[in-house]
Automatic annotation (TrEMBL):
GO cellular component, one term: SCF ubiquitin ligase complex
Domain F-box: 10-51
Name of the featured protein: F-box domain-containing protein
Pfam families on file: DUF7885 (PF25372), F-box-like (PF12937)
GO biological process: SCF-dependent proteasomal ubiquitin-dependent protein catabolic process
Entry-linked InterPro entries: F-box-like_dom_sf, F-box_dom, FBXL15_LRR, Leu-rich_rpt_Cys-con_subtyp, LRR_dom_sf
Length: 211
């Protein structure tokens, strides 16, 4: 009891510094449930992070959205498919879109998340204002997502559409037309015909297209 009382009296800043060294989101969640001070320490630790990657972790909508919402200064968000089977769906993206950090995100990777669709992605990207890099490869998005990206991400520089087999040349032409800073586009595994690729390069000769 005495040891618990001493730990409980540690300054929040010091607790947050200690939690900065935690690499396991499971451990952070457990620490957050110890007491009110520890919960605040975990929140402040997350608030300091500019990069957040869930690679290799089994995450669900609720826990992921909660962590992102606490990461006020976040710039880069990485939620890729993992061997554990990431369970992120449109519900998670919609909840994440309410986070204060979303408007400042410069990089988002949702690679291989087969549980997301246009509904969730459109909600998320419609709230981004500073996005430079977007990876939605291996998802089932359609041109509707590309139209939303074109509307909301004028500073986009790179986009990965690897194996996005439901996007068409219509969505790509809108991206080229609206995202004037676009430098690189990964279209490997898509169904985009070669003549369309040539037309894209005519419109944007400096664009690097990976197929």
């Amino acid at each position: 009891m005495e040891l618990e009382a001493k730990i409980d009296r540690l300054p929040i800043d010091l607790l947050a510094h200690i939690f900065d060294f935690f690499s396991s989101f499971t451990d952070l969640a457990q620490a957050s449930s110890v007491c009110k001070n520890w919960k605040q320490g975990v929140k402040e630790s997350l608030a300091r992070k500019q990069n957040l990657s869930f690679a290799g972790w089994k995450m669900d909508d609720e826990s992921t959205a909660r962590l992102v919402c606490d990461a006020y200064n976040l710039k880069k968000l990485d939620i890729p498919r993992s061997c554990w089977g990431c369970q992120i769906t449109d519900s998670g993206l919609i909840n994440m879109s309410l986070a204060k950090c979303v408007g400042n995100l410069t990089s988002i990777s949702l690679w291989g998340l087969t549980g997301i669709t246009d509904e969730g992605l459109i909600q998320l990207v419609s709230r981004t204002k500073s996005l430079h890099h977007l990876n939605v490869g291996g998802t089932f998005i359609t041109d509707e997502s590309l139209f939303a990206i074109a509307r909301s991400c004028p500073d986009l520089e790179t986009i990965v559409l690897w194996s996005c087999r439901h996007v068409t040349e219509s969505g790509l032409f809108v991206l080229i037309d609206k995202c004037h800073k676009l430098k690189s586009m990964n279209l490997w595994g898509t169904r985009i015909p070669e003549d369309c690729l040539n037309k894209l390069l005519i419109l944007s000769p400096a664009l690097q297209i990976k197929v």
